[in-house]
TrEMBL record:
Principal subcellular localization: secreted
Species of provenance: Rhynochetos jubatus (kagu)
Gene: Ndnf_1
Protein name: Protein NDNF
Task of the protein: Secretory protein that plays a role in various cellular processes. Acts as a chemorepellent acting on gonadotropin-releasing hormone (GnRH) expressing neurons regulating their migration to the hypothalamus. Also promotes neuron migration, growth and survival as well as neurite outgrowth and is involved in the development of the olfactory system. May also act through the regulation of growth factors activity and downstream signaling. Also regulates extracellular matrix assembly and cell adhesiveness.
GO function terms (MF aspect): heparin binding
N-terminal signal peptide: 1-21
Gene Ontology CC terms: extracellular region
Record Pfam families: NDNF, NDNF_C, NDNF_N
SUPFAM superfamilies, A to Z: Fibronectin type III
Residue ranges constituting the Fibronectin type-III domain according to the UniProt record: 232-329
Amino acid sequence: LRMSWFWIYLPLHLLMAACLCHSIKTPITSSQQSFKSDLFNFYHSLILADGKETTIHLMKDIPKRYYFVLEEGRALAPFTITVTPCDVPIEWTILVHKVSASLLGKAAQGDHETQEVSKSQKAPSTVSTIFSYKGNSVETYMGMSSHSALYMLEFLSTERDTHITVYLTTDTTSGHLYPELPMDPRIDVIGVGHTTVTLTWKHSPSVLQHRENIQYCLLVNEKHNYKSLCAAETAIRSSGMKLPPTLALSLSPYLFEPQQVMILSNSELSIINKASSGEVRQICMGTKNTYTVPNLSPSTQYYFDVFVVNLLTNASAAYTGTFARTLEEPEPKVMQLKDGKVIQVVLDGKKQKLYSLQYQARHKKIQFTFQLCRGQVRVHITKNGRTVALENISGLRYFSLKGKLLDTYLVQLRSTEESNSSVKVQVSPHFHKPLFPLLPESLKIKSFSKLRTCNSVTIAWLGTQEESKYCVYKKRIEEDQVWMELRSVDRCSGPESRHKSEKVLCKYFYDINLQRAVTTETIKGLDAGTLYLFDVYLFGPSGIPVRYHSKVVKTRKKC
């Protein structure tokens, strides 16, 4: 069986005479009548290619028609048509116009003979609908033709503009464009955890035959299943994420957009597309048919779709999708606080986990101390189940509370940022022995613009009424490092984390009069037109430092 385009080369009036001869005697539907009228325009119409996947764009409520011809070559000639909707449900129909091959042959001989045939022979000619479908599933029609026939495919989208792919083939002896699915194309969920789901599926026959050219790819999202890879990619794009076609499947070196994250490990390619509505993951794992999806959120429903992909053509076939809900997150472990002991807690901003600390009072008066090291932290303190403190903290914060012996205090900490946060916590009944030094009204460092030179800057900071030690450190930075340096600074870290070359000086000072408790320093030996990051550390009686807010100053370029 081969495609024949000989009708195209017939004179237009001969083609119409041959196709429409005597067919009006049989009642036909409106679609069939439309088909007959379309035959007048067949010479200028769209011909569907054989053996190639064709992408067709549909406008809302505007039908689109494609044609192909099957020539009588042998009895029961087979053909298949596969239509893949890439978004909304569509309607599509196959109509066939069967004409006697002898009639067509005579029609080609001339106008006069055609008229004679139409008068005397009354050749059979029928128009019929052989298949019709409405939906968004991938659908394949397999047909047999024993007559020369003109076929029309009509496509219609009634919801919105969309696109589809159509694959027609009359060659059933060569390999398939689409990989084959097993007899049972379901995905089985064989394990569910708090942050993982394990899936398995039966091997595609194509994997067993052409292992080097076939692979499995998994799509994970929180909305719904997709019936084709085409539909999945359309949804990703419409959600605001730019995804190059079959990006994860072809393994081509596309340039990634800022909202895409690519992870390649253990021969697996993972692509995470981020959007405000959530994330869609594409994971290609070669020919493995069991996979554990990691890094999921607890108590969340996920939808899983597996596609078997032909790497040579990028054509794919979809298994029947499934879904699973991860287990609820277990109750957070509660750590016991001990008098005077300092602990540092790192809080996961992305998962927004609560970190719980418990303390049973051995004194009527106690004091909680929080030192924010990084990020932003929300503190919630309850006493015997009732809230006694709730606020976002910054810097150093004290909570002095009164109660009864054996009162139970529960401290819950949570990061208020997407990035990780860190905080130090201490509880103590000893008000007269504070862990941290007495703090000034402000921890800001001030610089004096008029006192800047090409090789020196002057800075100032506030002190207290208590004699304390202050150490100054400097660090040379570039323009593009400023934001990152200020953002990533650990305010709980002391000078021990700094390089020795960054140390400028240490000094002691205090003043009973807080109005005069201020000190200045001029740092010399700097380079002209250069940015420097300055830090001041305050040490109290316990030796635990408090870091002032970092200050960035640039020396003058010309003097």
